[in-house]
């Protein structure tokens, strides 16, 4: 892909949360509202149906409905990346073809989950997805949940294809991130996964980031990015540390996504509870959550003032 076409995948891409109604059914209306909230905040893109989006906990029809709603709401303003990874290649291909049909800008997939797969299997799985559409493809490397260790040699091989434009790497080793960037080359995107290390990832070669906690504080991640681009590392670090305090608190709830979705609910963006086995916020935790939301709001106000 030409370098100027890669630009739209850089910057702050919010890994969107799941969107359900009160009965726990997928809600296109809630998806539109949440997507609009992020477009208004001014992020670069949305990553739909990934870990944060609970794609793995939904049926194919539900995943399609959410993606279609998001693309029709914000697809002309934001870059929409569809995570179409599923346990089977067949389902992943079906979702990828649907993503192309509704107008997503790229597809992305983890290795097929549950089975311990050989590199040959994962390669064939990804290849079938890549060949099934004309969309760009972004590898999703998250070994702590998939169990699959992506080698530099498989990454390098995949990256030679024009359609394979990048990798989202959720490994906490920034060294591995740097090695992937070196292997992929200048025109291959490396997108930072661990939100706690956004600045570290950027500093060592990431072109941008896709994250699950961006969704409750996109303004703060955009601030870090602006500081980084301006070369103000002291200020960038200050905001990364603030963000990390918030993330530490978010991770102290029984489910990160339950906490994030509850924070948005406090702001009037109701996307329902996460789906079991992910837990909602317990009654007894709401006060703590409210305090956290207030803290985030104070930080956002500070960023907006500057
Ligand atoms: C393991 C995992 O889910 N990583 C996410 C994405 O890569 C991150 O966005 C984390 O949710 C975030 O960094 C909080 O630890
Ligand atoms: C966390 C993340 O990037 C995802 O939802 O896949």
Automatic annotation (TrEMBL):
Keyword Lyase: yes
Any Pfam family: DHDPS
Domain of life: Bacteria
A single GO molecular function term of this UniProt record: lyase activity
SUPFAM superfamilies to which the protein is assigned, alphabetical: Aldolase
UniProt keyword terms in alphabetical order: Lyase
Family: Belongs to the DapA family.
Full protein name: N-acetylneuraminate lyase
The species this protein was found in: Paenibacillus macquariensis
